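Standup notes
- DV: blocked on the single-chain target, sequence here:
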Amino acid sequence: MGIQSFNAKYCLWCKRPSNLRFDTNREWSMLDEQKGARTVEEISAFAQSKGKSIQFGCASAPLFSVIPVSRVVPDTLHLFLRIADQLIGHILVELKTRDNLSKKSAGAFNIEKHHNIHKFELFIQPLGIEWMFCVDKASNLITARDFTGPELWKIMTNVSLSETIPDHPKLSKIEQLWKSFIALIVELKSQIEGEDLIKFQHAAKAWLGFFFFFFVVTPYMHVLAYHVPE
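- DV (later): unblocked, structure below
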């Protein structure tokens, strides 16, 4: 596409800057140029005239100039993986914080001495997920491998957040955040058309705004709310 990386300042499909990812009052589109949609011609022009600065993330001319940006379809599977990573990742950070392991050298690590992360390991074992916390040799901090797509889905659809992070001051809202995201993904698997598509976008935007109250909005969340429905 000729655009900088997905996590760069601007969206791949529109000219939305990173500092406005959370703003659901603005309209962004990959089809409507009046709402920030990109075109192959514009990307090429910006790339050629960038000088010392890169305009709207346009680093080079698109490799396939005959394919319009609107034909570059967001990968919904990858989108699910990255957003689910965020949701579960925040839970793991909370568990390590409760066990005083977030930024502390692990030393002689014994998982059974750390109640919260040990409980999470015990939760995922019956799900058939071979996964565990370990000590990173370079940093000497507690870490773990990334989950695969099927593993993420198993965790998200089986976890009890009230048991995983009991007494969290925002527990009910985090539960709602997870439940709403799962509902969006389930709906994505079906054929959404007409009014249902409009309802989906409204729901996705509402979820995006709700997420912003707790965590930093990522590029994938913007794509879910604005470009997937297109």
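- Follow-up: Residues 41 and 65 are 8 Å apart (CA to CA).
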